[in-house]
Amino acid sequence: MSTSSRIIATATDRNFVELAGVMLHSLVATDVGEDVRLVVFCDGLRPGDKSNIARCVHPRTVEFIDLQGAHTARMATLQTNSNWSRAIYTRLLMPQLLGVTTGRIVYLDADTLVVDSVNPLFEIDLGIYAVGAMGGKSAKETARLGLAPDINTFNSGVLVVDVEKWLKEDISEKTLALAAERASKNLPAFDQDVLNIVLNGRFAVLDYRWNCLGKCEHPSPAVIHFTHAKPNTTRCVHPWRHAYFEHRAQTPWARSRLKTKWDRRARRLSSSLKRFFGRF
Predict the structure, then answer these.
(1) For the chain, which terminal residue's Cβ has fewer other Cβ atoms within 10 angstroms, N or C?
(2) CA 124 to CA 40: how far, in whole Å?
(3) How many domains does the chain contain in total?
(4) How many CB atoms lie within 10 A of CB 221?
(5) 179 located within any domain
(6) Residue 163 sits in a domain of what CATH number?
(7) Is 114:30 a contact under the CB 8 Å cutoff?
(8) Residue 214's domain spans which residues?
């Protein structure tokens, strides 16, 4: 394995290609150091999809890492649904997929939008922890996950990973093992749930500005996270949707139609048929 100090990564399947491309366009519009690697973990992307994403970051370059081989085999039995494919589990294998043993990885979900530089996340103090994330106390979440009520839980849409500590704690193996063990049980947040269970509150709590959920009620947000209706759908009424369209206008999806509830239903039907016929 080689080493690399500063990486920003995301993951997508074909359903989220537009969102990933627009997010990356918003990212490079901020101050991103030339030494930062930009990486997309891919699940079933076509050459045209990759070309469109690459255009979003030009003149910067982006690396594409396809799920394949042993890593794909490990994900074959893990929970997925019509919204979230196995691409979500790349968060659990980032150091291995990237081939790094030290440094930091900043992970951003495809359905985020960067409105201020994320460079500070490479320097932010994580203390003794391997992971930094936005979170806090939620009696509902701890009860659902079977954790002690005083434990903090987090949203995994924005993660800061200290690679060396992550590997030392064997977090990849522990989370994947738990995901496989509980594949038949209801973990609605999938990889986020297993991360929270394995880490059991052992993470550095990031300020809300780094992962603004809901209506984004923060005076100085850095990353907007569209956790419910996505900004490229007719259902979205998010107050930052305009910013998404400003960036989308400069991407290959500038004239794409908005997705409707019928697209969502068609995706669910397709997912159900694949499962019925034994296709992953």
Answers:
(1) N
(2) 23
(3) 1
(4) 20
(5) yes
(6) 3.90.550.10
(7) yes
(8) 6-276
